[in-house]
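SAMPLE LOG
Freezer: B-3
Tube label: C17
Construct: single chain, 374 aa
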Amino acid sequence: MPAVASVAVVGGGVAGLAAAILLAEAGVAVDLVEISPEIGAVGSGITLQGNALRVLRRLGVWDRVAELGCAFDVLGLRTADGTVLAEIPDARTGGSDLPATVGMGRPDLARLLADRAAVLGVKIRTGTVPTALVQHTDGVELTCSDGSRARHDLLIGADGVRSWTRTALGVQLTTRPLGMGIWRAFGSRPASVTRTDLVYDGPAFIAGYCPTGPDTLYAYLVEAAQDRSGLTPEQRLSTMRELATAYHGPWDEIRDSLTDPRRVNYTWFETHLLDGPWHRGRVVLIGDATHCCPPTLAQGAAMAMEDAVVLAELLSAADTLDEQLWAAFTARRLERVRAVVDASVQLCDWLLAHEQADVPGLMRRIAALVTEAP
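STRUCTURE (predicted):
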């Protein structure tokens, strides 16, 4: 039987939902709390590489992902005027029977995972804020804003970059800005967009887009980080459209379709990595709570879901929750994640420095790493 009989999960993102699904499949009682009022209510698009698709198949949602998303196996490079420079076959890191990449709406993915978890008996409470945790030798007591107080064998903190769980544990981790900000918009997909194309010239460090379904895409522009917090939604839309005027080809249609201020957002690239064990007693951190990286390699969600896979596998195979289990978890996750985080940050550093570097070599190295099962 699994090393735990009941688990609390804090956070309803891809890491928390993946862990909840896998543990529920193993017969563990799972209680998941999410601060947002609705899972999948916000977000633009997400790029899922093959190793993420491999996990989604394990979670039992691959068929729906394939139906709702847009699969492709080639990455395009263009100039700012729209000229195609290269069409590069992308590595099928999830195996030959899965596409190299799928783009889909982030809210769609979240809802698929939440529905799957609910079918398996996971108790999901949204709009619920954790307020206190108390550790005992044989369990963890979690108190929440809805007045509930429950004791579990293990608590999984999968609550993102600004993790409440991490703070409650007293774990010190500095999240470092990388000097870049990204504009993202979710909109209509022109017929000419069938894959991700990237542009590395023009006023933005990167101009790109990814199809997310039969008629949708998300587009993004990466600039030097600025304080854009004072802009109204309309001003954010205007600013992104103005930056996009330097780009042509499919960008001309994309830019014209950007008309809804609610579908534009701006965030900074950040990074952190908890260097060492990710657990404290009977609480463990996974996903962005312990590692985050810029989206330059599109591996953030994949690494988060891999954390859940490895953790659930170890918990399901063990009889007790002991240091041997935690040592195995650290051994299987820390250096793999470190390689991905470091490479993602390295790409940012090269772009900021306008440095000519072996980007294809770095991408091949990471593709080879993540092709291997975690």
